[in-house]
Amino acid sequence: MRNLFKRTMSKKKWAEAEAESKLWVFNCECGHEFSIWDVGGMRYKARGNPVKVVRCPKCGVKKGRKLRKKEMSE
Ligand SMILES: [Zn+2]
Q1: Distance from the CA of 45 to the center of ligand 1, in angstroms?
Q2: What is the pLDDT of residues 62-73, one digit of tens each?
Q3: How far is the CA of 54 from the centre of ligand 1 (A)?
Q4: How far apart are the first and last CA of the chain?
Q5: How many angstroms separate the alpha carbon of residue 74 from the centre of ligand 1?
């Protein structure tokens, strides 16, 4: 029973982390916008706008990009 509860909790947390990670996005010069989740990363319960070196899934350019959090309304 406890194991079942634990699994349920972590699934919920995981879903929360996934939803939040998808709000953290990079904007590429090519016009493509992609989330940190799209490139295999995650960001949860975090603040600030760090610069991370990531490859744009569309044009393939890899460089330091500023991470920003989208508002829910965007
Ligand atoms: Zn691009």
Answers
A1: 27
A2: 999 999 999 866
A3: 10
A4: 41
A5: 20
